[in-house]
Every structure is written in structure tokens, then in C-alpha cells.
Amino acid sequence: GNGTAEYFYQDPKVLFIDLHQDPRTLYPGTGFANQIGEGKGKGFTVNCPLLPDTGWDSYQYVFEEVIFPLTEEFHPQLILRNGGTDPYWDDKLTQLGLTIADFRKIGENVREMAKVCGGKEIDMIGSGYKKEAIGPGWLSLICGLADIKIPIDEPEPAPQRFQKDPRYKETKDMVRELKRNLKDCWRCLSK
């Protein structure tokens, strides 16, 4: 996502929203909540950095407080989603806290967002570093996007610490900061 963010950093025609692990904890060290674009593109880069162990409740909070309102206000012609299973709780690169079932919820949220553009959504599924989670995670995401109900097993149960999102409070703080940074750019975030 960092290369894509850099490419569109000054472009007001593309709204780039990125949920990713806090850059203080992972290479390449970019994607802070105050990195919002520049020039004509100011406000069109929306970085949502999440602390390690962040779980689904935080993701859903970011969707409800930031992503859904921005999508409504920006009203894109098309939604292009890029990402894979690296937020999986046992991924070998990142330390986020999603389960396989949570990827379905991401797909469901993207399907809901795409209603503003007549359901036009392209998904560039990629990434993930826990090979046992890639297949089930991608399938779960696709099922959410396509509204397909089939059971998908977790490769292994998530540890107890992920039953309740341990980073929800910090995520709410990050969203407050993000809204402060973007309030002059978007009516929906100025409330």
C-alpha cells in the first residue's frame, strides 16, 4: 500500500484508504495518520494505522467511523480493494489480530460500500505470509464480497486474547486523530 499511497499522494481524483499495522512497528515506516496527501491531493490519502494485536472490533469501528462516511461523500465510480491475509493473527510478517471469519466481514463491508457506485468493485487479492491461512482467508474474503454462505474452517483457533479486541481503545484514539487531521477536507469527518 505504501507505493500506491505515494503514487496518488497529490491526486484528488483517487481516494486512497489504507488500514495497516502501525508504521512504528513495521517496515517501511510510512502510513501515519497525519500523512494525508499534499497539494490538490490533501485529504485524499487516509492512513489508518493499527497497533499489533488489533482485532475485528477495531476494524469495524474504522469502517463505521471513517471508511463508510468517506465513501458516501467521495462517491467513487469504482472501488478497487487491494490486500490479502497479512492481518491474520498468526501471519509471519505482521502482528494484527484477524481470524479467517473476519476476512468475510471485510468482504461484506466492501460489498456494502460498493453500493454507492452500483456495485462496481475490483478486488486485487494478494499478500499473506502464513501459507495455511492464505487459501481459507482469500476464500472467506471472496465469499463476503459475493454474498456466498459456505463454512470455512480456521486453520487453527485464535488465542484467547483475540476473543475481545485488546486494541479497541487505542483504535478509537487513532480515529479521533485521523478525524482531526481530515476535518477541513471532508464534511463527514468534521462532526
Approximate helicity band: 25-40%
Computed CA radius of gyration, to the nearest angstrom: 16 Å
The shape is globular
Biggest beta-sheet profile:
2 strands, parallel
* Helix vs. strand class: alpha/beta
| DSSP, total strands | 4
Major sheet strand order: 1-2
Q: What's the tally of helices?
A: 5
User: How confident is the prediction overall: mean pLDDT?
Assistant: 94
**Spatial separation of the terminal alpha carbons:** 28 Å
Sheet-strand content, in percent, reads 5-15%
Q: How many separate structural domains? A: 2
Low-confidence stretches: none
SSE run? HEEHEHEHH
Protein name: Histone deacetylase domain-containing protein
Pfam families: Hist_deacetyl
Organism: Candidatus Nealsonbacteria bacterium CG18_big_fil_WC_8_21_14_2_50_37_10
InterPro entries: His_deacetylse_dom (IPR023801), His_deacetylse_dom_sf (IPR037138), Ureohydrolase_dom_sf (IPR023696)
Please summarize what this structure is.
With 191 residues, the chain is α/β, with parallel strands linked by helices.
Account of the protein in words:
The longest helix is centred in the middle third of the chain and has 19 residues, at 56-74. The strands form two sheets. The protein has a two-stranded parallel ribbon with strand order 1-2. A two-stranded parallel ribbon has the order 3-4. The mean pLDDT is 94. The protein is globular, with a radius of gyration of 16 Å. The chain has two domains: 1-50, no CATH class; 52-172, no CATH class. The relative contact order is 0.18. The chain has 191 residues and is α/β, with parallel strands linked by helices. Strand 3 (79-83), helix 3 and strand 4 (121-125) form a beta-alpha-beta unit. It has helices at 2-7, 56-74, 100-113, 131-146, 168-182; strands at residues 16-21, 45-50, 79-83, 121-125. Helix 2 (56-74) packs parallel to helix 3 (100-113), helix 2 packs parallel to helix 5 (168-182) and helix 3 runs parallel beside helix 4. Helix content is 37%, strand content 12%. InterPro entries: His_deacetylse_dom, His_deacetylse_dom_sf, Ureohydrolase_dom_sf. Residues 1-142 form the Histone deacetylase domain.
